[in-house]
């Protein structure tokens, strides 16, 4: 059965934030996968106004969010960034049903109002990050990354960062090769170049006196040493159980899952920017062997290190 993506409209939603989800998930691209593709349902009030120019006619309402596999919240257009109560209730119900929750730009205000972002790092447009942090103190607002992936909850910065996040979702669901093909069809980069690289920022925001944040930074500096969860706990001066709780609260992942994701990202960077052999990259990333690197790379990105290097250095 096709993966159902529900795009939740609100009154006056900017059309730019609707374009990427519709182009990426709404077009049938099963010819690329050889199997199925997403089913997109645009959900909202009858004849909702889109920007100043269009009215959206759709047979799907907010009730359909609760049966979707992924729910996407584009920008919240309300001048006070206070989403409608019926939309918030529907988003909360969808989250309770286990849907993957995604926001673009100020759509994070909808997720925050529904309680989905409590205790999580979240991205939004940098202009509105202070307002989100002030209004929802239980949300760890980070204005720096283009997007943040916490497993079943993903948030992005404004405008074009939404395209980056949508392509990232395709990469998670169908692998890097398919995501790159979709990007080429859209004439969009599969990743940002230079300082605007689209990868999720792997570093915790520095916090004075924050032992977990310091330990995460220490782990990033010692990835090549094959750091273990027990070593992380000793560095943070907490038990493994306490470390586990803090990591899940902060990143949405267990300590070992987080470590492996950082190792994969380190390998990605080295594959893109160096001509080092895969065996050497495996060592620098802390995987120990090239076989371990290939296994984790395939699990995370749906491709091999060699194919990834050819794709991103072509």
Would you give an account of this structure?
This protein is α/β, with parallel strands linked by helices and about 325 residues long. It has two domains: about 5-195, Rossmann fold; about 205-314, Homeodomain-like (Arc Repressor Mutant, subunit A), CATH 1.10.10. The two termini are about 35 Å apart. It has helices at about 15-25, 30-35, 85-95, 110-115, 130-135, 160-175, 175-185, 210-220, 230-235, 240-250, 255-275, 280-285, 290-300, 305-314; strands at about 5-10, 40-45, 50, 55, 70-75, 100-105, 120, 140, 145-150, 155. Residues about 190-210 have low confidence and may be disordered.
| Helicity range | 40-55%
Uncertain residue ranges: 192-208
Oligomeric form: single chain
Q: What's the SSE pattern?
A: EHHEEEEHEHEHEEEHHHHHHHHH
Relative strand content? 5-15%
User: Tally the helices: what do you get?
Assistant: 14
Say how many strands there are: 10
Ends distance: 35 Å
Mind summarizing the main beta sheet? 6 strands, mixed
What CATH calls the topology of the largest domain is: Rossmann fold
Shape: globular
What is the CATH homologous superfamily assignment of the largest domain? Class I glutamine amidotransferase (GATase) domain
Which CATH architecture of the largest domain is right?
A: 3-Layer(aba) Sandwich
CATH class (first level) name of the largest domain:
Alpha Beta
Tell me, rounded to a whole number, the average pLDDT: 84
Radius of gyration: 20 Å
Instruction: Determine the structural class based on helices, strands and strand pairing.
Output: alpha/beta
Q: Give the tally of structural domains.
A: 2
Give the strand line-up of the largest sheet. 2-1-5-6-10-9
Pfam families: DJ-1_PfpI (PF01965), HTH_18 (PF12833)
GO molecular function: DNA-binding transcription factor activity; sequence-specific DNA binding
Protein name: Transcriptional regulator GlxA family with amidase domain
Organism: Kribbella voronezhensis
């Amino acid at each position: 059965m096709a993966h159902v993506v529900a795009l939740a409209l609100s009154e006056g939603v900017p059309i730019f934030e609707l374009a990427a989800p519709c182009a990426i998930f709404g077009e049938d691209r099963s010819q690329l996968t050889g199997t199925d593709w997403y089913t997109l349902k645009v959900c909202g009030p009858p004849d909702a106004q889109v920007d100043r120019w269009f009215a959206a006619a759709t047979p799907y309402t907010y009730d359909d969010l609760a049966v979707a596999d992924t729910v996407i919240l584009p920008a919240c257009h309300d001048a006070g960034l206070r989403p409608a109560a019926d939309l918030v209730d529907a988003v909360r119900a969808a989250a309770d049903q286990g849907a993957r929750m995604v926001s673009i730009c100020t759509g994070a205000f909808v997720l925050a109002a529904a309680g989905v972002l409590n205790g999580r790092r979240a991205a939004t447009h940098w202009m509105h990050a202070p307002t989100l942090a002030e209004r929802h103190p239980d949300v760890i607002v980070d204005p720096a990354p283009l997007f943040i992936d916490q497993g079943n909850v993903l948030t992005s910065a404004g405008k074009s960062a939404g395209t980056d996040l949508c392509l990232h979702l395709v990469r998670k669901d169908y692998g890097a090769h398919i995501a790159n093909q979709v990007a080429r069809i859209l004439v969009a980069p599969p990743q940002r170049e230079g300082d605007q690289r689209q990868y999720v920022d792997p570093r915790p925001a520095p916090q004075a006196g924050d032992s977990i944040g310091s330990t995460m930074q220490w782990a990033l500096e010692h990835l090549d040493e094959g750091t273990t969860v027990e070593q992380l706990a000793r560095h943070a001066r907490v038990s493994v159980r306490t470390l586990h709780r803090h990591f899940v609260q902060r990143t949405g992942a267990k300590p070992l899952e987080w470590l492996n994701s950082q190792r994969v990202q380190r390998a990605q960077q080295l594959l893109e920017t160096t001509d080092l052999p895969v065996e050497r990259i495996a060592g620098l990333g802390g995987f120990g062997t090239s076989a371990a690197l290939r296994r984790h790379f395939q699990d995370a990105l749906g491709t091999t290190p060699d194919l990834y290097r050819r794709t991103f250095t072509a």
